[in-house]
Design brief:
The chain is α+β, with helices and mostly antiparallel strands. The chain folds into 2 domains: 148 residues, START domain (Alpha-D-Glucose-1,6-Bisphosphate, Chain A, domain 4), CATH 3.30.530.20; 146 residues, START domain (Alpha-D-Glucose-1,6-Bisphosphate, Chain A, domain 4). Helices cover 26% and strands 39% of the residues. The strands form 2 sheets. It has a 7-stranded antiparallel β-sheet with strand order 1-7-6-5-4-3-2, covered by helices on one side. A 7-stranded antiparallel β-sheet has the order 8-14-13-12-11-10-9, with helices on one face. The chain is elongated, with a radius of gyration of 24 Å.
Length: 317
């Protein structure tokens, strides 16, 4: 399904402005991007604006303060109070100006509806009076600003998806290359470090030969399990390792499929430089949340590998 065009008849009622847009990401991701101060500066505001988040307490009664910097150099101070926070379905917050803030007061309700793995977002701005709405339209061009802000959000989500479809990691380990290679290919070692912090691997099978299988069931701290099936496609011991992994409910219909290339270079007798190249070969809409956490997950996994090697647990028997 393609996103509908932005209809300009968005005004509903004499005290409201309403904006609707379909985003190619699940509600949980869109909700998080809307409430995470690390993401907001990348998309918040009309074209040409930048944003500084001063504080953001996302809970009922929590305060959100931000400064929007206009292309003309003017700063727009805003104070917002959260009224309802229902992740990932609904946000309600109110602009409550303080001294030095923009003299506008209105309430915003944002609904995040799941539509076949995408998010149909509806944002309603409710003003105290029709005159307040007309003031915001005339002074701040809130109608065009709203559409432009949602367009920037769409662009940011697209850039997130693209960025997470090809990742490259480099790290130097204090261990000989042969030992690092074994940590990637021997079941008893792989089981100890694979996955983000707090994860365990109750099922782990590695058959390091061309066409050999890789099977790992990761278990999260909350008890959920994530089965991963893989196949080794290239083995050049101890220099290079290529394997394809598939994550999802079934092998035949994976949520996403990734090619992983591990390259190991000697740095003296006791250090190894690792390059990990991750390329997403295919992914469906449900994979968005998994892929968005890939960078953090692999950073933590490689840190766990470093700890394993430095502890001596990865030494040759």
């Amino acid at each position: 399904m393609t996103a509908p065009s932005l209809e300009k008849n968005a005004k509903v009622g004499d005290r409201e402005l309403v904006f609707t847009r379909l985003f190619n990401a699940p509600p949980g991701v869109v909700f998080d991007v809307w409430t995470n101060p690390e993401h907001l500066p990348h998309w918040w505001g009309p074209h040409g604006f930048t944003t500084t988040i001063q504080e953001m307490d996302v809970r009922p009664g929590g305060v959100w303060r931000l400064v929007m910097h206009g292309p003309d150099g003017r700063d727009y101070q805003n104070r917002i109070v959260f009224l309802e926070v229902e992740r990932p379905h609904r946000l309600v917050y109110k602009h409550e100006p303080g001294p030095g803030d923009e003299p506008v007061s209105f309430e915003i309700t944002v609904n995040f509806a799941n539509q076949a793995g995408q998010t149909l977002l509806t944002m309603r701005m409710l003003f105290p009076t029709p005159a307040d709405r007309e003031f915001v339209l005339a002074t701040y061009h809130a109608d065009e600003g709203g559409w432009q802000t949602l367009a920037r959000l769409s662009d940011h989500l697209a850039s997130m998806s693209k960025a997470n479809h090809h990742l490259v990691f480099k790290r130097v380990f204090n261990a000989p290359r042969a030992l690092v290679f074994k940590a990637w290919t021997e079941t008893n070692q792989l089981q100890q470090w694979w996955g983000p912090d707090g994860f365990t691997n109750p099922v782990c099978v590695a058959e390091p030969r061309q066409g050999g299988r890789l099977l790992i069931h990761m278990r999260s701290p909350d008890g959920n399990e994530y089965p991963m099936h893989g196949t080794f496609t290239e083995i050049v011991e101890p220099e290079r390792l290529v394997f394809v992994t598939r994550v999802g409910e079934t092998v035949d219909a994976p949520r996403f499929e990734i090619q992983n290339t591990v390259t190991l270079k000697e740095q003296g007798p006791s250090q190894t430089e690792l390059t990990l190249d991750i390329l997403v070969l295919s992914a469906n809409e449900a994979a968005y949340g998994n892929l968005s956490g890939a960078k953090i997950g692999w950073t933590q996994s490689l840190a766990r590998l470093a700890m394993l090697l430095e502890s001596g647990s990865g030494s040759e028997q």
